UniProtKB/TrEMBL annotation:
Pfam families: FAD_binding_6 (PF00970), Fer2 (PF00111), NAD_binding_1 (PF00175). Keywords: 2Fe-2S, FAD, Flavoprotein, Iron, Iron-sulfur, Metal-binding, Oxidoreductase. CDD domains: fer2. It comes from Thalassovita mangrovi. In the N-terminal section; belongs to the FAD-binding oxidoreductase type 6 family. This is 2Fe-2S iron-sulfur cluster binding domain-containing protein. GO terms for molecular function: 2 iron, 2 sulfur cluster binding; metal ion binding; oxidoreductase activity. Residues 276-362 form the 2Fe-2S ferredoxin-type domain.
Length: 362
């Protein structure tokens, strides 16, 4: 076996470095770590060779639930320095059916199928530039991946990290962050609690981050390359704050998984729309759609959410069964040849060519 080079001896990757090719993998759960009351880190060993990824990339995992296999996308929390082991940190919200299933059923020794890595949300194209990593809630996961990569390689990059959580008990990786901060002299770490419990002791920043808070933390924020991840309203707010402080919008990079909410529009039918014949039948309902929209966008406009991940036809999260009709699909490896032959499509990169009937995967 060819030995992998010591990550700490590698030069900082150059701009334009190609990302690792997405491909299927087999994983075995090695460890569960309770981070908070509703958040668990899952540590996996790879069973079929290395899964190389860059910090900030993601992986899609198939979950064998009783109701059928559900594919969900997760940012990889580990830094990518050990290609034979990776971790994801998962929060199970009240409506998180699949993530709740993970918390209740996954145990060490369980084996899962995955595909990855994918995504371009990574710091590698910005060598030597000052960084600001901002994460809200579970959106802090890719920031931790990037920080672990920098720390593990002994990088001396000027980096600031802001973690925002609702309550003190929601802050992630607190002990590890304290240790990393003590070992990285060029790291500035800030933690913000937006709504601490009554009587809860917290001596750090309180409330939602605004211009005054950011300025007190980092008067030089506008000169940095900023990576931000979290709920859409959080990222929108942080973008507004940073632009008001003078940040070039091109230096504000965001990542989110799943289709953003789209307000449904009621459009009176016209003769032209009736002639298109582009009707999508799905989950017992019929929808008139535009041939210019992907199925994910068209269904979201009708208030129907299809789980998505990469949005680029790579991860397979938005897989649906094409029962009848025909689509134009521009996938990038998210489906195998046998899956395509069996009639599966990816809704994020498929546009209907006529009336189609869809079904959720078995």
């Amino acid at each position: 076996m060819t030995a992998l080079p010591d990550p700490a001896t590698l030069p900082f990757p150059k701009s334009g470095l190609p990302l690792h090719r997405s491909q299927p993998h087999s994983l075995c759960l090695a460890e569960r770590i309770a981070e908070t009351s509703d958040t668990v880190t899952y540590v996996f060993d790879t069973l079929d060779g290395p899964l190389q990824h860059h910090p900030g990339q993601a992986v899609a995992i198939d979950l064998p639930m009783d109701t059928g296999t559900a594919t969900r996308t997760f940012t990889i929390a580990s830094g990518g320095l050990d290609p034979h082991r990776l971790s994801i940190t998962v929060k199970a919200g009240p409506s998180g059916h699949a993530t709740r299933w993970m918390h209740e059923h996954l145990a060490p020794g369980d084996r899962l199928s995955a595909r990855g890595p994918f995504g371009r949300f990574t710091l590698l194209p910005y060598p030597g530039q000052p960084l600001l990593l901002i994460g809200g809630g579970s959106g802090f996961t890719p920031m931790m991946s990037m920080l672990r990569w920098l720390h593990g390689r002994g990088e001396t990059t000027d980096v600031a990290v802001i973690q925002v959580a609702r309550q003190v008990g929601d802050l992630l990786y607190t002990e590890e962050l304290t240790r990393i901060a003590a070992e990285m002299p060029n790291l500035r770490l800030f933690e913000v609690v937006t709504a601490p419990k009554a009587g809860e002791v917290w001596r750090g920043y309180r409330g939602r981050p605004d211009r005054a808070m950011l300025r007190s933390m980092l008067p030089d924020a506008a000169r940095r390359v900023v990576f931000c991840c979290g709920p859409d309203p959080f990222m929108t707010s942080m973008g507004q704050v940073l632009r008001a402080e003078g940040l070039d919008p091109a230096r504000f990079l965001t990542e989110t998984f799943g289709a953003a909410p789209v307000k449904a529009k009621v459009v009176a039918p016209t003769d032209d729309s009736a002639q298109t014949g582009l009707t999508v039948s799905y989950r017992g309902r019929d929808f008139d759609v535009s041939p210019d929209d992907t199925l994910v966008s068209a269904l979201a406009a009708q208030g129907v959410r299809v789980p998505t991940g990469c949005g680029e036809g790579q991860c397979g999260t938005c897989r649906l069964k094409l029962v009848s009709g025909e689509v134009d699909m521009a996938q990038q490896g998210g489906l195998s040849e046998s899956e395509v032959a069996d009639g599966y499509i990816l809704a994020c990169c498929s546009r209907p060519k006529g009336p189609v009937t869809l079904a959720d995967p078995a």
